Amino acid sequence: MVRAFSHQWPPIIQGGMGVAISHWPLARAVSLAGQLGVVSGTGIDTVLLRRLQDGDVGGHIRRAFAASPWPDLANKILSRYFRPSGRLPDQPYMRLPLWNLESNYWQSALAMLGGFAEVWLAKFDHPGQVGINLLTKVALPNLAVLYGAMHAKVDVVLMGAGIPREIPGALDLLASNKPAALRCDVVGLSPAQSPWIRFDPTSYETISQAPLKRPAFFPIISSYSLALVMSKKATGAIQGFVIEGPTAGGHNAPPRGAKQLDSSGQPVYKERDVVDLKAVAALGYPFWLAGGYGFSGALEVARAQGAAGIQVGTLFAYSEESGMAADLKQQVLTAVCAGFASVRTDPLASPTGYPFKVVDMENTLSTTAVYKARQRVCDLGYLREAYSNAQGDVSFRCPAEPIANYVEKGGRLEDTVGRKCLCNALMASAGIPQHQSDGTVEPVIVTSGDAIAHIQDLLPPGCNSYSAKEVIDYLTKGL
Ligand SMILES: Cc1cc2nc3c(=O)[nH]c(=O)nc-3n(C[C@H](O)[C@H](O)[C@H](O)COP(=O)(O)O)c2cc1C
Predict the structure, then answer these.
(1) CA–centroid distance, residue 59 to ligand 1 (Å)
(2) pTM of the prediction?
(3) Which of 17, 163, 321, 352 has most ligand 1 atoms within 8 Å of its beta carbon, as the pocket-test mutant?
(4) Which of 146, 295, 366, 477 is the most buried (most CB within 10 A)?
(5) Is the residue at 112 inside a domain?
(6) 65 CB neighbour count, 10 Å cutoff
(7) Which structural domain range is residue 46 located in?
(8) How many structural domains comprise the chain?
(9) Is the previous residue joined to 19 through a cis bond, with omega within 30 degrees of 0?
(10) Which residue's C-alpha comes closest to atom 11 of ligand 1?
């Protein structure tokens, strides 16, 4: 069975890369080149807040705010958070309260306007298509970000790191400007006992209540069973899949079955982790293959397996337009050129418990010395898990927070081992690190796919940068 879709999707999806690696300039460049550019919506409220405190260089946020359907709210946010002359070099960024179930009005407003601004800037003044990527696990801000992005006419929503079963129905409701809700996964509570994460668009005064375009939804999956769940049991329609393998940058799905590590401490993936593409194809949706498809000729390889195209992250992460801090980007490119860039799958680093890819680099949180020297603090809290506390209330904890706090909240000591504060480290990789009150600057962590060496094909001798357009030309060479 092949489902009839009127929409023509591009063969290349530039993968969503948080935090702010796939920011709007990258998605815009990809979209202008005729492919699907994807902005990251993860942590976008903090990203927006930090950009405003850094003086909104180039005036882009103010430009987007001026076009937003919430002009009063946008002005209030500017008067609260915008610092025209930026911060002093060591000045800490202002912080927002951590997200919780009774989401704070300002936090949701920043998430909503952040989602709006990022997509609006990526789509401004051209007809190309733009998607937004969110992590299912970072559930609390997602509805606000999605609603903002929908006001900027986002074309596709792409979500992995969990089972985004309730998102399609939420998109249907938000498109009609109606309140939407997601079940909050709570350790210690059954789904039926779990509370709702709610977002009500009518809490914010909008200049128009006209129905919004309902974006397409592409769940990012790593097994046929997940594809089946999403096609049969989602709360609304999906329009395609991204099928991501364990060589991809960022978080990876854990291997199926009992956890097994190789001699270097990396998870072992086996035959049963390979997705049955024929079975997925039989569901009738277009699909894109992700993870190790960033090489010339990969499109033909993917199409030969029935795919509509490929999703690529790593090659774009080091392009001129990506949001990675310039010095880090250069360090990795130099290492790639010298042939010694290496990537490892860290089974412990992420508070989510999912394996996470790290580039081995000095002076980053992936080294033991930097990890040990960092004072544990949880001041962003996106990756915290909800749990039912001794009083029967829902509370939040993170295995990367100060160990005593985590254990006091009922967390297991062994779960804190090797856990890294990805929230702070990924903000730092995007060039917006927190300056803590003890004078330290949050260290960075760099994530990439295993096939980082393919970057070499884009870097002729003596050349130390390449554009997103060059990545696309490389991927489509000879087609
Ligand atoms: C720096 C970086 C950050 C990433 N962050 C995310 C993310 O926030 N959400 C997500 O769904 N995928 C994320 N990914 C995965 C990409 O979207 C994409 O699927 C993957 O990179 C494709 O495989 P490749 O790395 O071999 O090109 C990230 C990848 C990289 C390289």
Answers:
(1) 28
(2) 0.97
(3) 17
(4) 146
(5) yes
(6) 24
(7) 12-324+462-475
(8) 1
(9) yes
(10) 160
